[in-house]
């Protein structure tokens, strides 16, 4: 696996669940763009990843996540990035939630595991910046 540059994003995040077909508040997507927001809709649910203070009203939410972003953009032909990161974090006993976008990959880890996650990624040869 090639050496990756990973940035720890500031702030606490949440992974939230709304019912299928629920309306996502427009203001969630109208922010200044400085924070990660992701909305994924399936026939069974609508999932939202957002800053912990922006969880939509009525959503079931798991708070206390931190975001690690692989510095991109990454070519679609690259393989094994999430597999490598998840293996390295699993070996350190760190659970994760992953998210991919057009440009890059993001890994969310619980706040208490952040230091252990960063140390494991550095030990695997990756550059980890932030926090």
Automatic annotation (TrEMBL):
SUPFAM superfamilies: ACT-like. Pfam families: A9CJY8-like_N (PF21631), ACT_7 (PF13840). InterPro entries: A9CJY8-like_N (IPR049447), ACT-like_dom_sf (IPR045865), CASTOR_ACT_dom (IPR027795), CASTOR_mTORC1 (IPR051719), UCP008459 (IPR016540). It comes from the Bacteria. Residues 11-57 form the A9CJY8-like N-terminal domain. Residues 60-122 form the CASTOR ACT domain. This is Uncharacterized protein.
